[in-house]
Amino acid sequence: MTQFPAGCLTGTVVLDASRVLAGPFAGQLLGDHGAEVIKVESFDGDDTRGYGPPFVNGTAPYFLGLNRNKQDLGLDLSGPEGMALLFELLGQVDVFIENFKLSTWKKWGVDDLSDLNRRFPRLVHCRVSGFGETGEFGGLPGYDAALQAISGLMAVNGPPDIDACRIGIPIVDTCTGMYGAMGILLALLERNRSGRGQQVEVTLYDTAIAMLHPHASNVLNGGRASRTGNGHPNIVPYDLFPTATVPLFLAVGNDRQFRTLCTELGIEALGTDPLYRTNRDRVMNRETLRAALLPPLSKLDGMPLFQRLMELGVPCAPVLTVDEALALDHTATREMVVELDGYKGPGIAVKLDRTPGSVRRAPPTIGAHSREVLARFGLDPDRIAALAEARVVK
């Protein structure tokens, strides 16, 4: 049997009753670093199991990408027996992640979610929602693209001559999951001092607003948030340029890098031209600068130029497809593709040298570990069999 290193969250027990993306991703991040994560799933399963094609043995990769390193407890929460069992388990776990509607909680007899922490004083309860429960939009459902739209993220994405454009990944959901995991870790750290848990609230709306840098900071301090396409509102040249082969993104962050770029392109005088000498100058004259850079770039092979510029300390990169990026030797060297028991997914981004994360479990089927999980929480075989017979658990 494969031996995995003990992750930094080994011994932390997480009940993940969330669905779709943000909550499950938070749970997976904790599981990657050693937490014992138990996914509580309805008999119908998480919606994302059907978010395909493609499918792997009937399950969409969308689900597989968010639910590794978890055991699965199939639990029917529509009746009192299922809810009673959920509360029984909450008394024995460290973390509870959920994204149920407040109306659902009220239907279950919980009118005030702070009751959970009064009942389970050491519990870290992470609640994920679209807009939160307060304010003008409180209680409304939230979906990634809709939050990109209402937050302003969509308005600043894409070329200026087209309509607002959705960012091509569910970035609000993903970042909400990251914030959720961060909040859980903060609460666990504080619990070490106080002995008390607390509620951690993350919302897609709050996350989307928090992600608006530098546009929000610009607007709040007298500037504007304009759509600049691949260009950067505050840094120039920070944009995509054609070459003779592949498109190349130049990410020139300071004046030295700009002068080095100009020298390498054979237009050294441009680096000290008063119109472009400093970043402030270049931002004010971005269009004429772009016009000056296009001719020399269009004559060069983008891949060798990328390598030369990076060696000289000028940040840039070719535009690759997802397939090409996943196939890079560097991706393999960084262990950013993992495989386990037929599962394939992206690797673990946070690398700890003494207590590294690991992928120990492939994403589970519905109820795959119900009996094992319930036994782990002290239920005897007869009771487990009765719960299964009554269709409370699967």
Automatic annotation (TrEMBL):
What InterPro entries has UniProt attached to this entry? CoA-transferase_III_domain (IPR050483), CoA-Trfase_fam_III (IPR003673), CoA-Trfase_III_dom3_sf (IPR044855), CoA-Trfase_III_dom_1_sf (IPR023606)
KW Transferase (keyword) present: yes
Q: Name one GO molecular function term.
A: CoA-transferase activity
Q: Which UniProt keywords apply?
A: Transferase
Task: Please give the name of this protein.
Answer: CoA transferase
Q: Which residues form a coiled coil?
A: none
